[in-house]
Amino acid sequence: MKEYGHELAAFCYYAPSAFEKLGGLWPIRSGHNIAKAGYAVGPRMIECYSLHVVLDGNVEFQAGEARATLRRGDLFCLFPDRLHNYRAVEFAADSPLRLHWLAFDGPQAEELLARVGITAEEPYLRGKANGELTELLTRQFGWMTEGNRPVELQMSLYRLFALLAPSDAPDSSGSVEPGWLERSAAYMKSHYMEPITVADAARQAGVHRSHFYLAFQRRYGMSPKRYLIQLRMEKAEELLRIGKLTVTEIALSLGYADLYAFSRAFGQFHGIAPSAYRQGRRGGPADG
């Protein structure tokens, strides 16, 4: 670290590559410091997002109407083109303010921040900076300094947000959090052409199957079984209209064990056999 007016600090100014900017998130700069008495930054604004973790000491932070005194284990975020200022408070020579920061940008940046509870209106979190997170920041600083670890850096950025993400398991009152429901629906949307079952989706959600059924029904207005069948039948209609695959090939492509199982499911859903549906749509002969 080098000595500056009111701090000892180390900085890394990173130049993200074109490859890194193909992703949803990329690093811009990083640094860490030990503040001296009188340390203060701003009021000023920056062009990107920047997470600042309080490693020790106390800092008073303000951005717009948001104001907070933060301590070890807390963190705050600077938002682009938004005035902010922060300063060391309750300074103690044996326990000075120490910060580690990571500036980043990308089309997913604001959404990822929102997912962990950081918004422009409330741009800080308390007690979320654990040892694993600070170690990750230290590794990121080293990789950015080396300048030749783009894949590791990209992976580590998402890991950072995973560490900050709150648990979204149902609480003891039995209330339904949307996170696991959305994940289970996304799981079915992503894999409905594979031979997955509703039990697989319940395991993905991490809740008991009966609770999964009830919560899913309330949220989506249909059972998870119906939801999964609907995804497959909508795709089946599309493939039957296109006409490039035989009905048997469509059945196997949609995760059914054989033509009989698919035809039965299609008939129950649409009230017509898949071969008859295709024949009616295009006026041609049925196939198998």
From TrEMBL:
<dbReference type="Pfam" id="PF02311">
    <property type="entry name" value="AraC_binding"/>
</dbReference>
<dbReference type="InterPro" id="IPR003313">
    <property type="entry name" value="AraC-bd"/>
</dbReference>
<keyword id="KW-0238">DNA-binding</keyword>
<dbReference type="GO" id="GO:0043565">
    <property type="term" value="F:sequence-specific DNA binding"/>
</dbReference>
<dbReference type="InterPro" id="IPR018062">
    <property type="entry name" value="HTH_AraC-typ_CS"/>
</dbReference>
<dbReference type="InterPro" id="IPR018060">
    <property type="entry name" value="HTH_AraC"/>
</dbReference>
<dbReference type="GO" id="GO:0003700">
    <property type="term" value="F:DNA-binding transcription factor activity"/>
</dbReference>
<keyword id="KW-0805">Transcription regulation</keyword>
<keyword id="KW-0804">Transcription</keyword>
<keyword id="KW-0010">Activator</keyword>
<feature type="domain" description="HTH araC/xylS-type">
    <location>
        <begin position="182"/>
        <end position="280"/>
    </location>
</feature>
<dbReference type="InterPro" id="IPR050204">
    <property type="entry name" value="AraC_XylS_family_regulators"/>
</dbReference>
<dbReference type="InterPro" id="IPR009057">
    <property type="entry name" value="Homeodomain-like_sf"/>
</dbReference>
<protein>
    <submittedName>
        <fullName>AraC-like DNA-binding protein</fullName>
    </submittedName>
</protein>
<dbReference type="InterPro" id="IPR014710">
    <property type="entry name" value="RmlC-like_jellyroll"/>
</dbReference>
<dbReference type="Pfam" id="PF12833">
    <property type="entry name" value="HTH_18"/>
</dbReference>
<dbReference type="InterPro" id="IPR037923">
    <property type="entry name" value="HTH-like"/>
</dbReference>
<dbReference type="InterPro" id="IPR020449">
    <property type="entry name" value="Tscrpt_reg_AraC-type_HTH"/>
</dbReference>
